[in-house]
Amino acid sequence: MNTKFTKKYMSSLKGTDEEIIVSSLIIGEIGRLNDLSSNSEFTGMIDSLFNHKNFDVKIATSHCLGHICIGNLKHFLPIVIDFINNQPDHKFLLLMSIREIIDTKIDDITEHFETISGILFENAKSLEEKIRNVVSECLGKLFAASGLDLLSEFESRLRSPNHLVRSTIAKCFKYSANKETDVTAMTTLMPDIIELASDTEHQIRQFTLESLISIAHHLPALLKNEFETLLKIIYSETEVKKELIKEVDLGPFKHKIDEGRPIRKAGFVLLDTLFEKIPERINVPVTLDIVLVGLSDPDDDCVSQALHILIKLVNWAPGAVVGQMSNILEKLPPILKAPVKGTSKSSIRIAVKAIENINEIPEMETNTVFQKFVQDNVVTQA
What would the pLDDT profile of 309-348 be if each residue is shown by its tens digit? Predict the structure, then answer.
């Protein structure tokens, strides 16, 4: 029955683009559950479709190849590895196939770990961002499964002089943090990972912060002893840096690109996550200082994240919030009165929620300054 179905869909690989895509995915599902190594046509078929002009067809073929490998790793994985070594033009698609295998059969590729990790590490320095992205995801999942076996390889690349390699490795830990992660290996690398958050390359700092968010969410215990160091990094990275604001000449007008925005947002999200997972480690005065900076950020997402942290502070340390009330109230009117566009409606909603939470603090009921603020900026704006 499987042979009959396979032949049926193999014949459709010469049809329209839509027929090829559907047939590739179906053959992949058949191959995932059955050994298709007896069909000698697959290698030529894959090679032909990787040269197809339609990119969606190529992606479907990549998924197909990955799933066929799962049905018989011993037969098909060496073919994929040979393709990677000898067909550089198809490297991205072949690495996507490797990702499918890692996602589904990671426990069964132990004997190929050295070969696969070698291919991934080699491509960590690729000039193509899409290749580095796939490599990051694959390496992260390999590290989660068998970090101790790869520890020395990761250690050397965390300190690589090649910024592309550091960038790829910084991003990979975003995919490593989960309940099944090799915690011993992750603990060993933690100082080096955190050091990357102060890298000279701003994108590496961004990727590191994003990885730390994942670690903080899934493995917060690993960061308990690093909280003060992280707080200093967050304090630095949540400030607007003029050197990361680029001006692009578009002829009749100039456009500013804020390359620091993703880093600042990651910094606020990291702080919010740390506050949620290990609140007992929070340094309230420093956190309030970071929130005050965030409330004036030109980016609405950053403002929203700062407001989320403020709400947590109101519930965790209301006295400290009251002590900074004059500075907080000074920052809120521009948020509440901002023109509603894009995501700004979200920050207005969260700001109102923050004010409602502040209003629940007993001292605020008789605080005439706060009550007047509410009357002037919330009630009259409703």
Answer: 999 999 999 999 999 999 999 999 989 887 766 555 788 8
Residue with tokens 């990677």: 84
Using CA atoms, how far residue 285 sits from 52, 237, 318, 351, 367, in Å, is 59, 17, 12, 20, 22
Domain that holds residue 10: 1-108
**Residue labelled with tokens 């949620």:** 276
Q: How far is CA 75 from CA 44, 70, 234, in A?
A: 15, 10, 49
Question: Residue 344: its pLDDT value, please?
Answer: 56
- 155 within a domain of the structure (yes/no): yes
pLDDT digits (tens, 9 = 90+) for 76-127: 888 888 888 888 889 999 999 999 999 888 877 887 888 899 999 999 999 9
Written as six digits, the tokens of 259 are: 């390359």
Domain membership of residue 183 (yes or no) is yes
CA separation, residue 240 to residues 11, 53, 161, 264, 302 (Å):
58, 44, 27, 8, 11
Domain ends where: 281, 312, 347? Answer: 281
CB under 8 Å, gap of 24 or more: what pairs does 243-249 form? 244/202
Question: Distance (Å, rounded) from C-alpha 111 to C-alpha 107?
Answer: 10
- How many alpha carbons fall within 13 Å on the CB side of residue 158? 22
Amino acid at 208: T
Strand 254-258 to 245-249 pairing: antiparallel
Exposed e or buried b per residue across 292-311, where buried means at least 16 C-beta atoms within 10 angstroms of its C-beta: bbbbebebbbbbbbbbbbbb
How far is the C-alpha of 196 from the C-alpha of 174, rounded, in Å? 14
The answer to whether residue 123 sits within a structural domain is no
Contacts of the segment 365-372: beta carbons below 8 A, 24+ positions apart: 367/325, 369/325, 369/326, 369/329, 370/325, 370/329
Query: What's the token pair of residue 85?
Result: 């070594």
Query: pTM (2 decimals)?
Result: 0.90
Q: Is residue 49 part of a domain?
A: yes
Number of structural domains found in the chain = 3
